[in-house]
Specification:
The protein is an alpha+beta fold. The protein has a single domain (12-158), classed as Peptide Deformylase (Alpha-Beta Complex), CATH 3.90.45.10. Helix content is 24%, strand content 28%. The strands form 2 sheets. The chain has a 5-stranded antiparallel sheet. A two-stranded antiparallel sheet has the order 4-5.
Length: 165
Amino acid sequence: MSVRQIRLYGDPVLKTVCDPIKEFNAAISGLVEDLLDTTKVPGRAGVAANQIGISLRAFSYNAENQTGYLLNPENLILSGEPELVDEGCLSLPGLWHSTLRYPEASITGYQLDGTEITVSGTGVLAQALQHELDHLNGLVYLDRLSPEERKAAMAALRQTDWFLR
């Protein structure tokens, strides 16, 4: 299909809880292809459907030598001690901030054929799984920052040339 344009912070779709996918059909197959194509751009670890303007529970990932997608992801299991990691977001270009994330994550979801799968990872993949599920729940990583870090992030956001004031 195609690489889709990423919605930027301030777009209401990014703060909306995404709807479950009720039927795995040709339209959802096209969405999966677009998510995978959009994630394959170098430097991208994942893309949630709402980041391309579709408010459905789907995301793709490309990290730690694993590439794939999940439909209707659920049951996120986190382990290890949370740690501060540098995090950015395609919907907040140019901004990077220390975000508390778990070093290990596992999440269950579905494939187009209805098969249930579990994706598990550490490092960047664990971070991506947490980050993309947050998007589907209407959160961006700024929502996870400490009050001090969030204040700095919002000040930096206001200085960008893309943010809608």
